[in-house]
Design goal:
single chain; about 70 residues; mainly alpha
């Protein structure tokens, strides 16, 4: 599994949904995970621009980045 220290909550959620989907043996759980992944894919990604350096990225990443 990936080191979670550099991932956003959104990225961690997708990893866990995909891993659960990959490892399930239940058709009911698989259908629910497919629906969850479809909902995740439909969620808008709201990119933000740093007002200082102009870098564009996810809001949580822009808040934590160091301007170069």
């Amino acid at each position: 599994m990936t080191d979670d220290t550099e991932l956003t909550a959104r990225e961690r959620l997708r990893i866990h949904l995909r891993e659960a989907h990959r490892t399930t043996d239940s058709p009911i759980v698989e259908a629910q995970l497919n629906a969850a992944l479809d909902a995740w894919n439909d969620m808008p990604t709201l990119l933000r621009e740093c007002p200082v350096c102009g870098k564009v990225g996810l809001p949580e990443r822009i808040r934590e980045h160091k301007c170069e």
